[in-house]
């Protein structure tokens, strides 16, 4: 899932080479980078598509529904592109075909970045955009600007949504370990109960958003997604582990969230005679996906002329996270959302991302291809004046 099958990689490499595009492989383990040098000098534009799947069993009734099974965290799971990353690959492949056909008129260079592990590398491993950058994907030649998109199953085909500045949240996953004293379930007074303490911690963590975050300025989320402790009804365990995630839209809020989590966990555990450890970030850390405001303003007419002004909509911030943010820390970037819901669909009933019923209408791909191509060409034209 994270690192992509060799069959897919071979097909992608072969396709890019057939277009006369220089190909680099093995970037960030299974990443692929295509370099298209135009006949005329100009800026270097990076176009990026993520390409990993998720441990979700597909149940959409389509001819090409995934039947793949794999082992994940000790369990057999299905694998599907439950966030539309296969759509992103197809769209970027389409853009590569169009732009390569215009090589003789191209005023600059295009880097096609096919990135693994956007959903996060395995715990303890490096991966994704951060590792690609570390291995030099933005150098030789040096990238001047980066464009990326994400398909959206709850936005109608033909529409584009965008936001200048902070558009997607930063994420920090965390792990909390509460250690108490084991005892027989019939004699709880002999224990220091980590389950009760963990429940108190979970409740207290929710006060960070409701009491510490100025919700008139920015949004934020603290979620506990997993809790594990004990294996019998009549044994109070010694230890409980919890996994959670923080989402925030400003660096100041990020620091506040981290500080408050550590304080709440430590003090709640100590008040009950237990100890607790917080690891943050634990598995995933992405910064805020920040669309350069000046670049967004300059490229907005391109979005509008491509999709039609009425179909380009300003969107509220998203509490989901995206490691395209690492590219935007290094170069100006614009990340936008492309409609993938069938026309006439109900956004409230459309299946959401990361679910078994996730579905994308492929008729929206053409707009994605056109938009990436036009952003590239218009940016090059601006810089060539």
Structural notes for this entry:
- By secondary structure, the chain is of the alpha+beta class.
- It has two domains: 6-168 and 288-384, Aminopeptidase (3-Layer(aba) Sandwich); 170-279, Alpha-Beta Plaits.
- Helix content is 31%, strand content 30%.
- The protein starts with 5 loop residues before the first helix and ends with a helix.
Low-confidence stretches: none
N to C succession of SSEs: HEEEEEHEHEEEEEHEEEHEEEHEHEH
Number of domains: 2
Structural class: alpha+beta
* Helical fraction: 25-40%
Largest sheet: 8 strands, mixed
Question: Kindly state the mean pLDDT as a whole number?
Answer: 96
Distance between the termini: 44 Å
Shape: elongated
Main attributes?
single chain; 385 residues; alpha+beta; Aminopeptidase; Alpha-Beta Plaits; 2 domains; eight-stranded mixed sheet; five-stranded antiparallel sheet
Quick structural summary:
This protein is of the alpha+beta class and 385 residues long. It has helices at residues 6-18, 85-100, 128-134, 194-212, 251-271, 293-307, 324-330, 365-384; strands at 22-27, 31-37, 40-50, 69-72, 75-78, 107-115, 145-156, 160-162, 165-168, 170-179, 183-184, 220-228, 235-236, 239-248, 275-279, 285-286, 289-291, 312-314, 333-341.
